[in-house]
Amino acid sequence: PRWHAPAPMVQRMLFGLAGLMVAVALIAWLAAPWIEAGGRWFVTNFGLGGVFVAVVFTDTFFLANEPILGLAYAGGMRFWPVAGVACVASVFAGMVGWLFGRQLGASPWVRRVIQRQEVNALLHRWGLWAVAIAAISPIPYGAATWAAGAAEVPLRTVLLGSLFRIPRVLVYFWLVVTVWDGVAA
């Protein structure tokens, strides 16, 4: 049987992108001066290293990284340095999630759940593509990397799938910047 991208996933992704754009527009319209002041404070105190740590944290623990990237941009950082650091950090977060998953996978309870839910078979069959789909879709990327670690999917497979995070970070950050510049300017 041929696999087709499920329409609900594509719809959720498009709805999520539209929601992100509306949220950024509202925040820019309602709170641009405060966001810019907070961004300047963040940039002054943490810089690109802070962006790296924050993106690793958010992407490892199933949170959105766009607010951090938007804050850095609103605080005066340029697009490409932030985007480059965010891409590297997001891929690195996949490795951290995999390591956490490996630790969790040592638990007999987690192993039983993985076997019962057929996560192990799914990840071993679709490993690279399962992580890649999570990296670009509304499926939580961190959850996929943790599950891959727990299911003992090879780290190299997770790394290759995590590379798909780069275009997602670039597109989402570009949308944030485009909307911010259009509304807050």
Description:
- The protein has 185 residues and is mainly α.
- The protein contains 8 helices and no strands.
- The chain has helices at 7-60, 66-74, 79-105, 108-116, 119-136, 141-150, 155-162, 165-184.
- The mean pLDDT is 88.
- Compute the gyration radius: what is it? 18 Å
Helix and strand element order: HHHHHHHH
**Which stretches of 5+ consecutive residues score pLDDT under 50?**
none
Number of beta strands: 0
- Shape descriptor: elongated
Mean pLDDT: 88
Beta-strand percent range: under 5%
First CA to last CA: what distance?
A: 51 Å
Structural class: mainly alpha
What's the main sheet like?
Answer: none
What level of helicity do the residues show? over 70%
Question: Helix segment count?
Answer: 8
Quick summary of this structure?
The protein has about 180 residues and is mainly α. It is about 85% helix and about 0% strand.
List keywords for this structure.
mainly alpha, 84% helix, 0% strand, 185 residues, single chain
SSE topology sketch:
Elements: H1 7-60, H2 66-74, H3 79-105, H4 108-116, H5 119-136, H6 141-150, H7 155-162, H8 165-184
Helix pairs in contact: 1-2, 1-3, 1-8, 2-8, 3-6, 3-7, 3-8, 5-6, 5-7
